[in-house]
Design a protein that fits this description.
ten-stranded mixed sheet, binds adenosine-5'-diphosphate, 1020 residues, 38% helix, binds magnesium ion, six-stranded antiparallel sheet
Length: 1020
Amino acid sequence: MPGTSDSVKVAVRVRPFNQREKNAGSKCILSMKDKSTTIKNPDTGETKTFAYDHSYWSHDGYTETPSGVYEQESPSSQYTDQKCLFQDLGQGVLDNAWQGYNAALFAYGQTGSGKSYSMIGYGPNKGIVPITCEELFKVIGTNEDGKKQLRVFFSMLEIYNEQVRDLLLKGKPPHGGLKIRQNPKQGFYVEGLKQVPVRSYSEIEKLMESGTFNRTTASTNMNATSSRSHMVITIRFEQVIQGDSGQSNTRSSDINLVDLAGSERADSTGATGDRLKEGSAINQSLSTLGNVISALADIAMGKKKVLVPYRDSVLTKLLQSALGGNSRTIMIAALSPADINYDETLSTMRYADRAKKIQNKAVVNESPTDRLIRELKEENARLMAMLKKQGTGDTTDIQSMLADNQRKMVDMQMSWQQRLEQARQEWEKSHHIDGSVIDKEWMKHPYITNVNEDPQLSGVIKHCFSKKCTFVGRSGSEDAIQLRGLGIEPEHIEVNVDGDKTFIKPCKATAAVFVNGIKVHEQTQLKHQDRLKLGSASLFLYIGYPEERGNDGTTDTYDYNYFMLELAEHAGVSVDIATPRDTHHTDDLSHRVLFQDFVDLLPKLAEANAISEELKRYTKFEAVVRSEASHDPKGTAAGKEVIIKVTNNQTKKVWIWSMNKFYNRKDLMDELYLKWLDGYNVVTTRDNDPFWDPVEDIFLGSCHIMLQSIGYCAEVDEHFTLHNYHGKEEAVIHVQLLPCDEKGHALEDDIVMEPKDLLNKTLNFTCVISQCMSVRWISEDHLRGVECRFTLPFQKPTKTKTVWHKGYVEFDFRQIYKYKPVTQKLLDYLHNNSLVLELWGKQVSEDEQLHSDGMPHADIETGNTDILTQLKSREDEAEMLREECEQIRKENFKLKQTVMVTEEKLRLLEMRGGLKRVGNKDRNMGASKTASSQTGLDVDFAKALRDFFQEMKDIQNGFKEMREFVTSTKDKIGANGIRQSFENHEHAINAIDDKMTDCLASLKKSAATALRKSRSGPDK
Ligand SMILES: Nc1ncnc2c1ncn2[C@@H]1O[C@H](COP(=O)(O)OP(=O)(O)O)[C@@H](O)[C@H]1O
Ligand SMILES: [Mg+2]
C-alpha cells in the first residue's frame, strides 16, 4: 500500500497557574488566537508568535464539577478540556489504528508543565491514553463480524539513564536493563518486553496502576527522579481477518504514547562550561531527541547529507519510526503560563516549531499471518547460520534473538483465547497478594503514603501501621517495613501505635527524621496529615485513623512543593537569599526566580550530600546567593544568583559551581550512585570524577572604600572589614590611599577646596595595603593563602602578592597610581563610586599538597580533644570580640561623618569670614591654632577620635597577639604546659574585652559632651 506523506502534527497547551505561581503573584505571559500562540518577554514586553496545528488554552475559563472534572465555564470560554483534546488528537490516532497505521503521541515540555496531565491525566480528568483505550474497547465491543478477531496488547516501559525497565514486571530488572535489538523488518525493539494481551479497559487500568507502582518504587529505591525518565506506553492493536480459504490476514498498528522527561535540561550539556562536558547517560535520550528532531527538520527543509542520529540513544532508537518513519505522529508541547518560566517556555515553543516540519511516511501494516511466521522462520535460519559461522565465539546475542523469535512464533500460533488465559493466570500469580490484602489494611489502620516530586507518583505507595510496633528501615528485617532510599538507616524509625495514638521515634541519632519541617530526636506523636521526611529524600504524608480522616488531606494538598516550602522555611531560606547589601526588592520577578531556584536546589543538594556520604566522598554542597553588589563599585547592583559552594572535608579544597554545573554534576553523581547500588565498584579517575575539580581561586569577601576623599586630595587610612556574600566577616584589612607627588612623597597641606579644582591637573596617590588580619579562610586551613584584587578607575586590574599559611597576612603592597590630566569623567567616577577590594582565597593543588612539607591538616591526634575544645571556645570568644569591634567601627564611621559635616560648615564659615584655609594635618588632628572658637566641636570630636584610634590600635595588637598565640599553640599541641598557656590566653582576651568596654564608654562620653556643646552653641 502506498505511503502517505504527512508532517508531524504539533499542538501546544497551556495549563492553569499552580499554587506556587499563584502565591508568588505570577503573571501569564501567553496568549492564543486560533492556531497561534504568542509569548511575551516579561522584562522587555517584546512578543513572539508561533503558529501550530493546534493551540489549546487550558489556563482559565473553567469550572470544577462536584466530581472534580474541569470543564468549560461557559460556551464562550476558550478553555480546552481533556475531552476536547481527545476528540482533536486521540480520535485521529484511533482512526489511524483501525486503518492499520502506526501512530505516536509525544508530550514534550518542562517538568510541571502538564505533560502527564495531557497524556495520563489526574483522577477524574483522564488524559488521552486512558480515553483512547476506553474508546478503543467501546468500538471493539460493537464488533459482530465473526471473521474478524480484534486483539489488544499493552506494554509499558521506562527509560532512565539509558536503561530500559519493563514497568509491568515487578522487582529488579536485569543488569543494565532490557536489551534493544534491531530487526531488518521491525526496526528497533525491546527484547523480552512484556506485551500483555488485554480484553477490557479495566484491565488496562489495572496494568497502568501496577506500572505506576513499579515506577514509584524504582524511583524511590534508586533515587531516580521521574522527571528525568521517559515513559513509553505501547498499545498494539491487531485485526486478524479470517479469509474464506482458511488464510488469515493481520492488520496491525502500534500506538506509542510517550511521556517524555522534563525538557528543562535538554541542552544543558556543553552549555555548563563544565570540565566534564560528556554529560551523563541520564540526559542522553533527551538531548539526542533534540538532535534527531533538528536533523529531520533540516532534511524537510531540503538540506542534503544530514545524518539523523537515531542510534545515539535508546529513546530515539525505539521511536525511530515515530519520528521520520512509518507513523502518524502528534506532539503536544506543554507550556507553563508563568513569567518566571519565560526562557523555558520560549525554548519549548521553538522546539515545537521545529518538530512540525518533520515529514513521515506512514503505510498500512497489513500482511498475511502466515507470511509473518514465514519471515520469522527465515530470520531464524539466518541467525542459525550466523551461529554456526561464529563457532565458539560469543554467541549469547544471537542465541537470545533466536529465543525471542521462537517466542514470537509460538505466540502467533497460539490462539487468542489461550493467550488471554495465560495472561490472566500470570496476573493472578503476581498481583493476588498485595492487591487485595493491602487495599483493606489501609482502610482500617493509620498509614503513611509517599509524596513524590512528580504528582503522578504521589500517594501510590502506602505503608500501614497495623501492629503495636513497626520498624521502618533499609534492612527490611522480618515484620519491618522496608524502605530504601538515600540516608535511610538499616533501622530508621520505630512506629508505636497505642490505642488511637501513633508515635514515631528515630532508631538512632544519625537517623534523620523531620516532622512538619522540624528535625525530631525523640519520640513524637503524629497527627493526621503530618508531613514526614526520612533520610535525605523520602517524603511521606501521615494519614491517621479512619475516624480522623475527612475528605481532605491528600497528597494533592500536601504535595511536594508544600513539603519543600515547609522544609525551606525551617531552614531559614527566605532569610538566606536576602544578602546584606540588599538595597531594593523592587525587582520582584528576579527575586521570585531566585527564590524558586533556591527552593528547587535544596532537595537536590541534600541528595548530593547523601550520595557523597554513601560513596564516602567527603564532599559537602551548600547553596550560596552570589550578590553582584559585592563586586560592584556602586555597591547597588541588584543581580543575584544561586551558586554552590563545594567543600571537600578531607582535602579542605573549596570550589564554586554554577547551578548548571551542579545539575550536570548531580546527574553524573546519580549515575555513579546507580552503578554503586548495582554492586559495581565505582572507581573514578580525575577525568570522570564528578566530585573532583582542579583547584581554583575562591572569592572570600569584599569591602567598599569610598573614593570621594581622593577627589579632595584627602587621604584614606582605615581598617575595613571584608564581608562575604552572607555578610559574615571574612577578615579585616588595612588600606591607605595617600595623595602624593610623582615620586610617591606624601603631599603636605595640599588639600583642594573643590574636586573641580583638580581638573586638567595631576592627581597621584599611593595605594598601600599592609596587613590583613583574622583571615578566616586561612585559620580554617593553614595550607591556604590569600590575595587581594581590585581595579582603580581607568587602570588595569591589580593583584597583591599571594600570602600563604598565616591568618595575619602582610601584603606589603604599595603602588603609585597616576592621573594626568584629571578629567571630568574621573572626578565623576570618584564622586559616585567606591573602590571594591576583593579578597580571594588560594589553594594548593593536591599534587603540590602531597609533596609539600607544609603544615599538617587538622588531623591532630585524638588525645587532644580537650585542647581542641578549648581552642574552639577561644575562637568563639574571638568571634564575639570581632562583632563588638565591628559595632565600634560603625559608631566610629558615624562620628566621622558628623565630623565631616561640621568641617564642611566650618569651611563655609571660614570662606565667608575670609579665614585662612586649614591644613590637612591640622584638620585631622583638630588642634588648629587659627580656627575660630567655633572649631570647639571639631576639636573635641577629633580628640575623642584620636584617643579612640589609639585604643583601637591597642585592641588590634591584642588581636594580633591572640591570633599568633592560637597558631603557635596549634603547633605546640602535644607539648606540656598547654593548659597554663591557655589560661594566660584567657587573661589576655579578658583584658582586651575590658579595654574595649572602657573604650566604648569613654567614646560615648566624649561624643555626648561634644554634642551637648554643639547644641548649646560654641560660645558657651
Ligand atoms: N491543563 C491542566 N489543567 C489543570 N491542571 C493541570 C493542567 N496541566 C497540568 N496541570 C497540573 O499541573 C501539575 C503538573 O502537571 P504534570 O502533568 O504532572 O506535569 P509534567 O508531567 O509535565 O511534569 C499537576 O498537578 C497537574 O494537575
Ligand atoms: Mg509528568
